[in-house]
Amino acid sequence: MSRQNDGFDFHHGLLQRLLDVAYRAINFFVRWDRLPIPLIGAANLGVFRDRLRAHNLHHTGYGINTSGDWSAGKERWRTADGSFNSLGHPRMGMAGSRFGRNFPLPECVPDSGDELLDPSPREISRELLARRTFIPAERLNLLAAAWIQFETHNWFSHGVPEPGNEFKIPLQPGDNWPDSERVDGCMQIRRTLADKTPRETWLGATPTFQNINSHWWDAGQIYGSSQSRQAEIRSGTDGKIAIGRDGMLPPDPKHRGVDLTGFNDNWWVGLSLLHNLFAREHNVLCDALKARYPAWRDEELFQRARLINAALIAKIHTIEWTPGILAHPALEFAMRANWSGVPSHVMRAVLGKDSEAAYGIIGSPTDQHSAPYALTEEFTSVYRLHPLIPDEMNVRRLDTGEQVLCELVNMQGRFTRRFMEDHGFTNLLYSFGTNHPGAIQLYNYPNFLRRFEKDGQPLLDMAAIDIMRDRERGVPRYNRFRELVGKQRVRTFEEITSIPDAADKMRKIYGNVDRVDLLVGLLAEDLPKGFGFSDTAFRIFVLMATRRLKSDRFFTDDYRPEIYTDFGLDWINNNGMKSVLLRHVPQLGPALEGVKNCFMPWNVL
Amino acid sequence: MTFTITIPGIIRLVAVTTPDEVLAVNDASMVQRSLSGRGGLVNRLVAARFAVFRSPDGDIWPAFRDRPDLLRGERQTALEARLSNVEPLLRRIAPEIAELGDYVRDGVAHRSTGVIVQQAVGRLFFADYAASEKSYDAARILQSWLSAWPLHAFWIRRSGALQASLDRIMDLSRGDMACAHATALAVDNIVRSIKLMRRLARHGDNLAKIGPQDALARTLRAPSHVVREVRDEGSAGPVRLRARSLVLLAVESARRQSADPSFAFFAGAWNRCPAHGIVPALLAEVWQAARTDTRGCT
Ligand code: HEM
Ligand code: HEM
């Protein structure tokens, strides 16, 4: 493995080996999520994670080269494109480098010929995904949906597809796909942008794709993934991000109705709220740093504030968003342990000071485990969470309590800034806090995204596209995916789902359970108690969520005062989503009163 | 005929032997050359045997590359084109053909048949390829690595012979994976044919009586079987394939039942041997060389 994995290897400790054997025996009788006592469940997750670290990280080559403008001294902060995070392997995780894989490369080979289009992604969109009536995820608020898209925009993007050699999806006679959009009677889907960097011979038949964003958890969605983008969003004074006179992000001159920020594709009000919030947080950090370090100039202030802001976002994601969507006691425990370790002096003493289990990943030694750090195609796939998006939401006024039902389609793309101006930042945050997202399951795909107009693109059926993307990128279909993350294959459709009528429909469409598409399986699967998405997808999260931290020098070896300042470390320690919201929008106080997790429903006043 | 064996945790295997089944399974999209080792202990052991056929920088040997692998396809086409220049290539290896002819006729040669065949095959790639007892030993070790019982295989690896053989073959092949495949693995099929020719020539006046094409038809042998894995459940013609079964395509057995002489090379299939033209010509030429001398015309 190491030859392809650039020399990286995973080393099991003795305790890990013993736990592995013990939990194999335990899991033979009891599933991890049914174990009593959070600590025992969390330890089970730790065992899964180590197995995945050993077997489920596969390098696909970096593809591109670093730019030449590196000089000593720059290692003190994050580069714009993510290069030199690893000083020994500077291309690792940089913008433009390839997505890795969670499975051995020969498992990640797309079907060829007709099988690639079989069964028709459009039929799946119509029969299994289309929303019939909105199924809300009642434990969460809509901010949770916007948040995860905000985060994925930090981590990855395959770029915007270009015309040429489109997939042609035949349409059934009763299909209402507009005639004007048909080519030869078919629906067209553009292909993912091709990776034009030189291919290594050992890649075999596995296709590769480039991540146009930096793979690191560096708040690239706010700061951009290139030097030039970073320059565009900066004010040039005191390290601050440029803000308009109204206190909001300025418009992007190249994209009508969209804010200027690090990454603003697939823009809508939900993203605008979070980008504005954390741009404000950045600017407050610059003021605070300047007060403490008056000699610092624009560049130093900007870079230090960025580090602190990015770490705070990662912390909110780890210990607030994740336990919000995966409300299981073992996970609550595990995610806190990921960030700050277990709250037991005895265990800390036993496990030692370099133990990530005892002291948390933050500040522990950097480790890439069995492959150079890269986000993966499979990671992208499990974040296809479009059912979170409703078709409509109640926009509420904080002052009068008035509400009006608005369609999502009118608050995205070129309509976004207008919608924000009409309803206001505060009212919209309040509305997002008090509306529900959709449940992540079959029959709940937002219908406006199934007939979606995006500037510069043909009409999109995003549900069909989601299916097609996994196939095109060689992500294994559902049953093999299960097997490869360490679960049993299922033999019947009924073993996947108890959603009424779904097993029959799937049988009719797929015939063979091994043909079920990953997304369909993930949306059909019966969930562990408290979970907002499937256990199969969760296995990828178990691995990758900690990897984003553990591989990153700035969360591990360099998570120290010399880099962040003492003030910065305290700031990260002492803040969370609630304090950020209240700092910038104090009017939200009553709505947030008593709310333990800001991604769960707020008080309707 | 299909033979299936499943012992949970130990083995999951399906073997197919008739020409139609072999072709159908070979063509099935859920069947691949890469072996994951899943399906049982035996599956894992077999996969580990095949996993070593890579260059030091990870390049995969051609007969283990998957069907949709573009590089495989390109290299296959390029080699097929190069090897279609049959006449000049046979002229290039005329000395080895003559040596083999001597062996078929008299049963003696200055060096072992394997070395001569390996050199002939190597020279199809590089005019100055020089085989030796050592290089042919390396090929033999790699061939037995694929078929050895576990203890023997363990010893081959443990003693360092496996790595040394891979290194030697790769060195001589100058990074050309097809040359490595041909001089280490494919060579065995030709050696078998030559030995059969020798046996044929020993009897009566066969050498004079049997023409080269006929001799070729009687002695050409395919690899006894090639190995695949079923990725996902499905079926290929009448054969039901369970996910993660190891598949044995009994090519030689199917060839014997097939009317098509090029079956040995999977000619016409996606994985056709790029040497499907030159190998029969080479063998016919060897027989001819053996006969030529019989008639006293050398
Ligand atoms: C109004 C809201 C949203 C819109 C308009 C939108 C639109 C899109 C579009 C146009 C694409 C590209 C499709 C392609 O491959 O051609 C995409 C991809 C994607 N979206 Fe969304 N989306 C929205 C919300 C979300 C949310 C809430 C998530 C949750 C995580 C999400 C996750 C993804 C992922 C993972 C991809 C794949 C990205 C890639 O291939 O690199 N999206 N979305
Ligand atoms: C009697 C001699 C030979 C026989 C019967 C034979 C037969 C075969 C067969 C059956 C395969 C397909 C294997 C599979 O799909 O797993 C194959 C592949 C191959 N053979 Fe041969 N072969 C012979 C000699 C040679 C020679 C002399 C060369 C080179 C000069 C050669 C080069 C190759 C290559 C490169 C492949 C891989 C094709 C691909 O890319 O899929 N073979 N051969």
Describe what this molecule looks like in 3D.
The complex is a heterodimer of chains A (605) and B (298). Chain A is mainly alpha-helical and 605 residues long. Chain A has one domain: Haem peroxidase domain superfamily, animal type (Myeloperoxidase, subunit C, Orthogonal Bundle). Chain A is built from 23 helices and four strands. A two-stranded antiparallel sheet of chain A has the order 1-2. In chain A, a hairpin with a 6-residue loop joins strand 3 (392-396) and strand 4 (403-407). In chain A, helix 2 (38-55) crosses helix 19 (535-550) and helix 8 packs parallel to helix 21 (566-574). The mean pLDDT of chain A is 94. Chain B has one domain (2-291): Orthogonal Bundle (Cytochrome p450), CATH 1.10.630. In chain B, helix 5 (94-106) runs antiparallel to helix 6 (113-125), helix 5 (94-106) packs across helix 14 (278-294) and helix 6 crosses helix 10. The longest helix of chain B is centred in the middle third of the chain and has 26 residues, at 177-202. The model of chain B is unreliable at 294-298 (pLDDT under 50). Classes of the chains: A mainly alpha (605), B alpha+beta (298). Chain A binds chain B through residues 3-4, 104, 106-107, 109-113, 115, 199-202, 204-205, 477, 479-480, 483, 489, 512-515, and chain B through 29-30, 32, 34, 36, 38, 54-60, 65-72, 231-234, 243-244. One protoporphyrin IX containing FE is lined by residues 145, 148-149, 152, 156-158, 161, 266, 268, 380, 383-386, 388-389, 412, 454, 460, 462, 465, 469 of chain A. Residues 62-63, 72, 76, 79, 121, 124, 178, 181-182, 186, 189-190, 193, 222-223, 226, 251, 264-266, 271, 273-275, 279 of chain B line the site of one protoporphyrin IX containing FE.
Summary of the model, kept short:
Chain A is mostly helical and 605 residues long. Chain A has helices spanning 14-29, 38-55, 121-129, 142-155, 220-223, 227-233, 269-292, 298-325, 329-340, 345-351, 356-359, 377-382, 416-423, 425-434, 462-472, 478-484, 502-510, 518-524, 535-550, 561-564, 566-574, 577-584, 589-592; strands at 167-170, 186-189, 392-396, 403-407. In chain B, a hairpin with a 2-residue loop joins strand 5 and strand 6 (239-241).
